[in-house]
Design brief:
Blueprint: E1 2-7, E2 34-39, E3 50-52, H1 59-62, E4 84-89, E5 98-103, E6 107-113, E7 126-131, E8 136-141, H2 143-146, E9 148-150, E10 152-155, E11 162-163, E12 168-169, E13 180-181, H3 182-193, H4 196-207, H5 220-228, H6 235-243, H7 250-262, H8 279-300, H9 310-315, H10 322-329, H11 338-360, E14 364-366, H12 370-377, H13 384-391, E15 393-394, E16 402-404, H14 407-425, E17 431-433, H15 437-443, H16 447-456, E18 460-463, E19 469-473
Parallel strand pairs: 2-8, 3-9
Antiparallel strand pairs: 1-2, 4-5, 5-6, 6-10, 7-8, 11-12, 12-13, 14-16, 15-16, 17-19, 18-19
Helix pairs in contact: 8-11, 11-14
Length: about 500
């Protein structure tokens, strides 16, 4: 054991100064004490373990009485017990590595080291113990060659304040029925701390929420339709949803959400193919009413100018949509259900006009306001906002402003156009069309891609001997299973 001596500094109360005082070289300065220093050798069984609390010293150590800052007794039941720690091997099969674990009444603590030994450091960590009575200072090397165990702190028996029945945050532990949903909490956090880009994404999500009161047929009929859409959930998941104690199949939930974002509103439990998709729900009330007024006005004046076909008046002379023009001229307006087919075709022509205009301008329509964008595309003022809402996103960060259509939105537009065409071309309650090739040609859409879109929407697509793609829909509506990636 190595020993040496050090000098303790004089206290604040120094002796009075004496004039002409002198001290010999071999004598100690006044008011100092000689202390012997002892440095002990490493001993794995007795070396002290040094820990730190990065998240703050526990209350059971810093304030064991539990007193508040204002003097109130915060722990009337008695003193807080300090945490108790255990020191053990990291692995039972290895002599290297140690683990420190501990806990008190409210928290648990843990830390470990891999036991790699010294990393060529010139300094080592020692614990100094001063014995005033024997006037010795003992320096003891800390365990694991100077390792400081930084303890991770966790709260014991923590239960998130979430209501299991409603999945609302804030209604689980206090028994109150008022709870803020998780989505609303995320919205509030983004509004307070989120970036402009994230706020724009949240605003776009909120804008895409369908307001049932603005949908034609709102009320009991619409609510029943929404309830029926739960038919896509399997029976096991339906029971789990009602029970609240089981977890839904995440793959099925993700597929359902993806289809809801890509396809028009649909009714899985429809008893007839023509009830699965609705052109009125696609357009919503304001846009559908405007399309109805335009079609009714054109059909009313058809008898006044028999030299010009009403289909040419409805589409205009500049349009090159041969598929729509041929379809309209094949419809007899006097037959039952024909007017609805004409209105659906006219709505489809406006969406295709929007698609052509945006595609020619590189996927963007630049203008200072939404009304100016609608005017550029030459859409009715009541229909344009709905089309821009469905298939485009506002451009941020530009003085001029405008709207842009992403690749996913372009695919979504193609799917909706194909479904609208099948609705308009189907005669009666059957959703079947002998050929969609001309429509694909007008939209510059690849036939294989169109067939893939329709199959994902639940349609059956078949190719005949001359290359025409025939489309049909049957009930109950069934979607294809998810595709599995190729093994690599």
């Amino acid at each position: 054991m190595a020993t040496s001596s050090i000098l303790r500094s004089p206290s604040k109360k120094s002796p009075k100064k004496r004039k002409h005082a002198s001290v010999k070289n071999d004598a100690l300065p006044p008011a100092t004490t000689s202390i012997r220093v002892e440095v002990t050798e490493e001993n794995k069984e007795y070396d002290p373990v040094v820990v730190s609390f990065p998240r703050g010293v526990p209350t059971s150590i810093s304030n064991p009485n539990g007193d508040d800052a204002d003097g109130d007794d915060g722990n009337p039941g008695g003193r807080l017990s300090p945490p108790k720690f255990t020191y053990s091997k990291l692995k039972a099969s290895s002599s290297r590595g140690r683990r420190v674990t501990g806990s008190d009444e409210s928290c648990s603590y843990s830390a470990f080291c891999a036991g790699r030994g010294h990393d060529n450091r010139l300094t080592k960590l020692y614990v100094a113990v001063l014995d005033k009575r024997n006037k010795t200072l003992k320096l003891i090397p800390s365990a694991e060659k100077g390792t400081v165990f930084a303890l991770d702190q966790e709260v014991k028996a923590y239960t998130p304040n979430v209501s299991s029945s409603s999945m609302g945050v804030g209604g689980g532990n206090d028994g109150s029925s008022k709870a803020v949903s998780a989505s609303n909490r995320v919205q509030m956090l983004v509004e307070s701390f989120g970036s402009k880009k994230k706020q724009k994404v949240m605003a776009s999500r909120a804008a895409n929420v369908v307001n049932i009161n603005s949908v034609v047929g709102a009320g009991n009929v619409m609510m029943d339709s929404v309830v029926k859409q739960g038919g896509m959930i399997s029976e096991g998941n339906r029971e789990a949803l009602l029970d609240g104690s089981k977890v839904l199949n995440p793959v099925e939930v993700a597929l359902l959400q993806s289809r809801r974002n890509t396809l028009p509103p649909f009714d899985v439990n429809a008893d007839s193919p023509h009830k699965v998709f609705s052109a009125q729900l696609i357009a919503e009330s304001t846009a559908w009413e405007k399309c109805s007024k335009i079609v009714d006005k054109v059909l009313k004046k058809a008898d006044e100018t028999p030299e010009e076909h009403w289909a040419d008046k409805l589409l205009g002379k500049g349009g090159h949509h041969e598929s729509l023009r041929t379809l309209l001229k094949s419809i007899n307006p006097t037959k039952k259900g024909s007017v609805h087919r004409i209105k659906t075709t006219f709505l489809l022509s406006l969406i295709i006009r929007f698609h052509e205009k945006v595609s020619r301008k590189g996927g963007k329509i630049l203008a200072s306001s939404l009304d100016d964008c609608v005017t550029q595309v030459r859409l009715p003022a009541e229909v344009g906002p709905r089309i821009f809402e469905l298939f485009s996103t506002p451009i941020e960060g530009r003085e001029q402003g405008g709207y842009m259509m992403s690749r996913n939105q372009a695919d979504k537009l193609c799917v909706w156009c194909l479904i609208l065409y099948v609705i308009a071309a189907s005669n009666g309650k059957d959703m079947a069309v002998s050929s969609i090739n001309q429509l694909c040609k007008d939209m510059k859409l690849d036939d294989k891609k169109a067939a893939l879109f329709l199959r994902e929407a639940g349609f059956v697509v078949k190719k005949n001997g001359v290359g025409d793609l025939g489309v049909s829909l049957s009930v109950p509506l069934t979607f294809p299973p998810p595709k599995r990636g190729k093994k690599t």
